[in-house]
Amino acid sequence: MLNIKGKVAAITGASSGIGEATARLLAQHGAHVVLGARRTERLEVLTSEIRSKGGSADYLQLDVTQREQMEAFIKYTEKRFGRVDVIVNNAGVMPLSKLEALKVEEWDRMIDVNIRGVLHGIAAGLPIMKKQGFGQFINIASIGAYSVTPTAAVYCATKYAVRAISEGLRMEVGGNIRVTLVSPGVTESELADSISDEEARQGMKEYRRISISPDAIARSIVYAMEQPTDVDVNEIIVRPTASPN
């Protein structure tokens, strides 16, 4: 793999799913990974497993909704390795429900994690990348960034926002800072575990009947990272072959 060995990647939402798979794959190919999530017990286990296989991994507790924590996470990465090559803004939540259910607190949580979390990652990383003259943001969206389904109005809105933010950032930074949007289709993860609405939960069980491994998304992230510095892979949509969704 080109341009992976020795790179420094900070990954949010790294305690499970896409974040965990990405951490394992990048470390396997020689990257230094710094893992952030709220569940430090999982991060500790993952870090130990990566190190036991000869990989380079560190971790920090991280709530992406707290700007100061994101600042500390990215600054730790820079101090530990001298630079920040890649920030993978992966943390996300998906408590689906119809709007008429008025689960306003869940709406707020999606906005805080899915949108503000990405913005906090950009705010923390962009000054460092501009100073060092290179870097890459990889923002994880969803196929929900391209179409809306019932019970997913707010979730899709947050992912549309991530798509818009990513495109705006790409146009503004130019130079040697790359911006990639990765939009997974139905992927095995814990996202559906946050659905408290029973109707939405049952619908999601059927929707997720056909899914792909988070390793597939990790490989797409590696693909975007390994390109030459003058190549910016802007958008990747990865779906299960057998799924129409």
Automatic annotation (TrEMBL):
Protein name (database record): Oxidoreductase
UniProt source species: Paenibacillus jamilae
Top-level division of the source organism's lineage: Bacteria
